[in-house]
Amino acid sequence: MESFSDLPEDILVKIMSWLPPESLFRFKCVQKLWYILITSLVIKNDPFFVAKHLRNSNKKTSIFFRCIKDEKKLQEGFLNIYKNDGNNSSSDVLSYAIKYFKPQSRKYYDSFPKGYDDIDKVYKVVKISGYWFDDLTAQVYTLGINDSWREIKMREGTDDCDLFCDKTVCCKGVSYWLLFNVHTFEVIIYSFDMHDEEFRTIPLPDKFQTSSRGYVLDWDTSLTELNESLALFYHPKDKYGTVSPIEMWIMYESSEGHKFWCKHLSIDPVGGIYKIPILFWKSDELLMMENKKGLVSCNILTKRVRRLHNRKLSTFISFGYVKEFGFS
Amino acid sequence: MSSSSTTTTTTRLLMLKASDGVTFEVEEAVATKLGAINNMVEEEGSEDLICLPNVNGKFLGMVLEWCKKHANNNTNSDKGNDEVNKWWDKEFVMDLDQNTLYHLLMAADYLSGTELVDLLTEKVASMIRGKKVEEIRETFKIKSDFLPGQEEEIRKKNSWAFE
């Protein structure tokens, strides 16, 4: 009687494309063939495997985070959220796992969102770095093509800018950042096209433009992604005083390429307490942070709030959206 | 059972002959959900009998049953069909044992039934996802061929995956 061991390698690869990273890494121990196969698929970031895995892994969301763990140590890791779909939607179970990295065992670019250049069929990673009074610099890494970062020229006028937060969002082959001017505190959205490798600036919703100065946003403002569109969480300025809802805006693009913003929803404070929205890990489930420590998932449609993490072990600093493979 | 009906006069019927001689009469629209058959129909044209020496009748029957369901569900073009297909796919793979899964996968792959291969590989993955290394070896009937110490080294490097 035949068994799975007789399956040809290409089918085995297809099976592996449905496995979560932890299973894949565990199965490297099964035998030499599996070790070689998984290593070549995963470590070398085989673009077709990664693309397929990306499509297949919609039941789990991996979110990269930085936090301060016990003894004030800076730690990085992945928060994996699983949704086990039962036969009816009421029986769905939410579970999560936090995996911390060993800092030395991780490739540097894993924590950056990868963008897919659909025309050249390659994955690229872009990072912008630079601190106060240092000029910002941008570098690109093309996975599997060259093993080094290439410097990319930024647009003129960014000399006085700094990163608003270190969260990058990547959707439909374009990466986005929030930059701010260190003198005027004006905020702009800066984008990078993975294919033509050009930087561009994108205006914020008209509503945010004050008459005297440009866009001045609250520090909890952040970019995110929803259904492959760029989205912005906007915190009205008086939130500490009057408790007004956080707004979420989505950028749409017309068929002529014209970009426009629409207000998508308002997020009321849950139980009168502000929770900072982080990102949508599923189309209707929003991950939110409470007091920099607790994590909750809030369903936008049913308003159901589920607590994910409330141990006082770590203080979360930042989150990045990592749908794709990223691992040690 | 033949489901002849007067409304399908425009639908061409194909005869598919499996390795053990069993034949199936299938509507062209159903059979061409399989990439391999679609190619044969397009390239070779008028041939109505297609011999498939690599697939046995039992599994060809199952593959065609899947094609038929998907072809039927796709003709009524409303949005609920995705849900119907998903539900039906779940039923289809629910109780498959390893031997059947193996032969179905080989048949679907040979016939280039991409969607069916996706469904079946996902099923296999769901069966092995949470398993221990030893259990995988048992399921796949394979033995470790690492040198002494090598396996421990890999385990140590990937310790997070074993928690």
UniProtKB/TrEMBL annotation, chain A:
Family annotation (InterPro entries): F-box-assoc_dom_typ3 (IPR013187), F-box-assoc_interact_dom (IPR017451), F-box-like_dom_sf (IPR036047), F-box_dom (IPR001810)
Residue stretches making up the F-box domain: 1-52
Stated name of the protein: F-box domain containing protein
Protein species of origin: Trema orientale (Charcoal tree)
UniProtKB/TrEMBL annotation, chain B:
Keyword Metal-binding annotated: no
SUPFAM superfamilies: POZ domain (SSF54695), Skp1 dimerisation domain-like (SSF81382)
A Pfam family this chain is assigned to: Skp1_POZ
GO biological process: jasmonic acid mediated signaling pathway; protein ubiquitination; ubiquitin-dependent protein catabolic process
GO MF assignments: kinase activity
Ranges where the SKP1 component dimerisation domain occurs: 115-161
Keyword Kinase among UniProt keywords: yes
Pathway recorded for this protein: Protein modification; protein ubiquitination
Domain SKP1 component POZ, residue spans: 14-72
Keywords on record: Kinase, Transferase, Ubl conjugation pathway
Complex and partners: Part of a SCF (SKP1-cullin-F-box) protein ligase complex.
Similarity field: Belongs to the SKP1 family.
Function: Involved in ubiquitination and subsequent proteasomal degradation of target proteins. Together with CUL1, RBX1 and a F-box protein, it forms a SCF E3 ubiquitin ligase complex. The functional specificity of this complex depends on the type of F-box protein. In the SCF complex, it serves as an adapter that links the F-box protein to CUL1.
Name the UniProt record assigns to this protein: SKP1-like protein
Organism encoding this protein: Trema orientale (Charcoal tree)
